[in-house]
Amino acid sequence: MSQQVKIQLDGQDVELPLIEGSEGEKALDVSKLRAQSGYITYDGGFGNTGACQSGITFVQGEKGILRHRGYSIEGLCEHASFLEVAYLLIYGELPTQSELTAFMDEITQHTLIHEDLRRIYDALPKDAHPMAILSSVVCCLSTFYQDSLDYSNPDHVRLSIIRLLAKLPTIAAFTYKKSIGQPLIYPRNDLSYTANFLNMMFALPTESYHVDPDISEALDQLLILHGDHEQNCSTSTVRMVGSSHANLFASVSAGICALWGPLHGGANQAVLEMLQAIHEDGDDVEKYVNLAKDKTSDFRLMGFGHRVYKNFDPRAQIIKSSVDKVLNKLGVKDPLLGIARKLEEIALNDEYFSQRKLYPNVDFYSGIIYRALGFPSDMFTVLFSIGRLPGWIAQWKEMMEDQSRIARPRQIYTGSTERDYVPIDQRS
Ligand code: ACO
Q: Is residue 92 exposed (0-12), middle (13-18) or buried (19+ Cβ within 10 Å)?
């Protein structure tokens, strides 16, 4: 018998079951509340709402803990590859060597996109934001790969997963090449997942391009850091869309749109633009910290603050420690790094930020590495999408296997009560 909590509403006792997660998170199960009492719960922004039960990712914001399937993000970053973490997220266990080899081989065999799909790029404006293209082309996968769209068929789901993981880097790199007017570079199956992506991004048909293994490893680590983050805005979107039994391509396409926003994944681009603006304005960091504190301005320090992390973001700490390594390796001296460090120091010692528990998040330093690697800032959120893809897939798959109901929140209606129709000639 599960534990119950008794609350009183309008003098009537209502019993609500208590749920406790494996890491001690407690929740009141309100799923029968309306039927029992006529009341619904209200939680704008969903800060107190558990929308699902999930065994994929554990985040403890106060202590800065992030674990996937029980494994710490620090350990995964140190020992695993991105595709190994992808396998873990999607299938629940770390793969054996033969499972990983088969998974990687299959992904490698699906990196090309259909030639007709490639032609869609010609119809889109050259200066389109890459996230718009990414989302559109991912949704179009459902038109070219109609043989794997049945959410209830495990073979279809498995094939869609492989196709998405294999094709997203190709779709992303083609987006970039198109935007700068260079010929598309096709995937190379002799390279690793990340090295192949770097090659498609930066190689030219006219000269040889060498992918530095240290750089490929640094990018691999950045992708791992973005792998999953439980019920954030884009993941909730993927679940919400998928709950209507929309196929995986359509659901992920919607997730890409949600990630694009500057309050979510788009923050990594916004951070770089903010640092650039501060630099061009004479490096006056304090001016911008004061602006972020000024309630009459809507300026925020991009890359600061997080809905869940209220102490530190463990992903930001890992990225921060690899910034120097990558920049030194590449021989890059970036004035924006100095500004970022100063900004962080001033903000962390300022009451406004400490009282509100605002700390650098995953996006604060990632853009500086991406820039050093040669990515333009509007591709940053695309990189985030490639990293987050295994998480979206894992969450979509878990939801489908749970046989959840369609996601359909309620509302508190605050509009006009019933009134009579007014003919147009009698309206004031
Ligand atoms: N700069 C200045 N003030 C901030 C910032 C910031 N970056 N973030 C929050 N605050 C202030 C708010 O103004 C508010 O102040 P108040 O209590 O005086 O009104 C208080 O801190 C709480 O802020 P909320 O917006 O209620 O916090 P919420 O949890 O809803 O938002 C969010 C979290 C969206 C990340 C927010 O901190 C933010 O906008 N940060 C900048 C954008 C960013 O970096 N996004 C990336 C997030 S990580 C990711 O998606 C991968």
A: middle
Distance of alpha carbon 190 from alpha carbon 202, whole angstroms: 16
Q: Whose CA is nearest to atom 50 of ligand 1?
A: 264
> Which one of 363, 378, 402, 420 is the catalytic residue?
363
DSSP symbol at 204: B
* Chain-centre distance for alpha carbon 100: 24
Question: For residue 125, is it left (φ>0), alpha (ψ between -120 and 50) or beta?
Answer: beta
**Considering only CA atoms, which residue is closest to atom 32 of ligand 1?**
306
Output the residue whose Cα is nearest ligand 1's atom 19: 295
**pTM of the full predicted structure?**
0.93
Give residue 237 CA to ligand 1 midpoint distance, Å.
20
Active site residue 228: no
Q: Bridge-partner residues for 9, per DSSP?
A: 12
pLDDT tens, 229-287?
999 999 999 999 999 999 999 999 999 999 999 999 989 989 999 999 999 999 999 99
CB 138 within 8 Å of CB 249: yes
Chain-centroid distance of CA 104 in Å reads 22
79 is catalytic: no
Cα separation, 229 vs 390, in Å, equals 11
